[in-house]
Design goal:
Helix content is 39%, strand content 5%. The chain is mainly alpha-helical.
Length: 527
């Protein structure tokens, strides 16, 4: 028990440290996304949805191998979400009060049905694993909810010590995440590790691996057992039948050894492999349940194909493409991106300008919780490639800083009816001065004194500095759309950009412009 708790504490501490540091080299040679790579459920679904074996998920194969040999030790010793649930259950315990009745045993089918649903949807290209996989939930819980909240609570102390407020990150869908995780923790009243018992699809993968591998270490009960039932009552996974404590539901046992620690007769051991293991009857799925789950999975796939705003990068003429669909730099083409994105939130946590935000239902079910580039919240720094560095699945390509400007996010567009120069003839130079690529020119209309901004699409990278710095409140006078975005699964962004006639170079590296550098000025406008 002491060893397990020490492993849990160290694992959670390392997970939080890597998540807090994100792209910083906290431990040399240790990727910041290493914990997410340990989730076999996530990478199984992403590999099926993306129709490719993701080699970055090799650590997940190591977890499966360890599970086959030692049982579900990942759940009891390593998983950050499992440790969080254990800590929350300990904090929520109400001694002396009657506990609510635990859910019926048939509920254990839930995680296997959820896994089947995820696999069916993944075969048709829809990745749903992020709804239940622990290494997608844990980074979102801490990175998008708890860390920003803690930073806001510490803000008064920062003001007192430093004299200035700290601009902490803020994320969309916070209320959704609060309600979701509140429900997850509230379920602990009915059973310890409720999510792990009844919902977790990764737990289902590990349970099947445990059963297939048979394991080197299993629970054994000697003849000294008096069947007092203490082990069954204290087992966090309910893996011990109350009416037969000598038996074990092998698929459910996570090897936490709580039963051995609480046994008054010391009749429980895990030393060595049992010669004749005596597993309790397993929960099996009925044909009706399996067929119904497959039907639901296919229905969800169909819903993501026929929705009006379900964009997958193959728009025909007349098919709407949402203006808000601006992805981070290096994002794969939309269909491949949605299949591989794990919705872990690491890219959003790593973004120094807080530009990346989780997508809501406005972009369709398939895009829910995937990262969007929201320029009004922050701009894409030219010398930053943190999002690609921490992406565990390759949905965002890792770009060097020379290649990154050519990974065009979109193109800035001016709203004349909102622009101070267009609408009120006021001299406003903000967007022109903010653009790091010298893609905005000020041209004067006949009879006016103020120059109005015009965007050179060939030079615009979609970085969003113009939108972010625009002084117009509410909807800005200039905003980034996905028009002309560069989304490549392979190859050089620079080579593709130059072939398309782009000229994206930072203003500090550009030669002095010639008077005719902007070719898009309409007739009657002066440069």
């Amino acid at each position: 028990m002491t060893l397990r708790r020490a492993c849990q504490a160290l694992s959670l501490a390392l997970f939080l440290a890597l998540l807090w540091a994100t792209a910083w080299p906290l431990v040399p040679g240790l990727p910041a996304d290493i914990f997410v790579r340990l989730d076999p459920g996530l990478f199984l679904a992403a590999s099926l949805a993306g129709k490719a074996l993701l080699w970055v998920g090799l650590p997940a194969l190591a977890v499966l191998a360890a599970t086959a040999l030692l049982g579900r030790v990942f759940c009891s010793h390593v998983c950050p979400l499992g440790t969080t649930l254990d800590a929350a259950h300990w904090a929520m315990r109400q001694r002396g009060r009657r506990k609510p009745a635990a859910p019926p045993e048939s509920w254990r089918k839930g995680k296997y049905l959820f896994l089947l649903l995820v696999l069916v949807a993944a075969v048709w290209g829809l990745n749903l694993a992020f709804w239940g996989a622990p290494l997608s939930l844990a980074p979102r819980l801490y990175g998008l909810v708890l860390f920003p909240a803690v930073r806001e609570l510490l803000d008064p102390a920062a003001v007192a010590l430093l004299g200035v407020p700290t601009a902490g990150p803020r994320f969309a869908l916070t209320l959704f995440h609060l309600l979701f995780f509140t429900g997850l923790f509230a379920a602990l009243r009915w059973a310890p590790r409720f999510w792990c018992r009844y919902v977790c699809p990764t737990g289902a993968v590990l349970a099947l691996t445990t059963w297939a591998g048979r394991g080197l270490h299993r629970r054994r009960v000697s003849d000294a057992c008096t069947e007092c039932g203490t082990c069954a009552r204290r087992c966090p996974m309910g893996a011990i039948p109350a009416d037969a404590p000598a038996l074990t539901r092998e698929r459910e046992c996570i090897g936490c050894r709580t039963c051995a620690a609480v046994c008054p007769e010391q009749a429980v051991s895990f030393a060595g492999r049992a010669a004749e293991p005596r597993p309790a009857p397993a929960v099996d799925l009925s044909r009706r349940e399996a067929v119904g789950t497959v039907a639901v999975g296919l229905g969800m796939v169909a819903a993501t194909r026929v929705g009006l705003y379900e964009f997958r990068g193959k728009a025909a003429v007349g098919e709407p493409m949402p203006e808000a669909l601006v992805r981070p730099p290096g994002a794969l083409p939309e269909a491949e991106f949605l299949a591989l994105c794990l919705r872990c939130g690491l890219c959003m946590k790593a973004c120094p300008s807080n530009m990346l935000q989780p997508a809501g239902l406005g972009l369709g079910l398939a895009a829910l919780l995937s990262p969007l580039a929201v320029s009004r919240r922050g701009a894409c720094e030219p010398l930053c490639a943190a999002c690609g560095a921490v992406c565990p699945s390759g949905a965002l390509r890792l770009l060097d800083l020379k290649e990154k400007p050519w990974a065009k996010l979109g193109t800035a567009v001016v709203r004349p009816e909102k622009c101070l120069a267009f609408e009120q003839d006021l001299s406003c130079l903000v967007c022109d001065e903010a653009c790091p690529y010298d893609a905005i020119s000020l041209v004067r209309r006949p009879g006016t004194k103020a120059g109005v901004p015009l965007v050179d699409e060939k030079r615009c990278s979609g970085c969003g500095f113009c939108e972010n710095k625009c002084p117009v409140k509410a909807a800005p006078a200039i905003f980034v759309t996905p028009l002309g975005a560069q989304r490549l699964a392979a190859g050089s962004f620079e080579a593709a950009g130059r072939a398309a006639g782009l000229d994206i170079v930072r203003a500090s590296e550009r030669t002095p412009p010639t008077p005719e550098r902007f070719e898009g000025a309409p007739p009657g406008f002066e440069q």
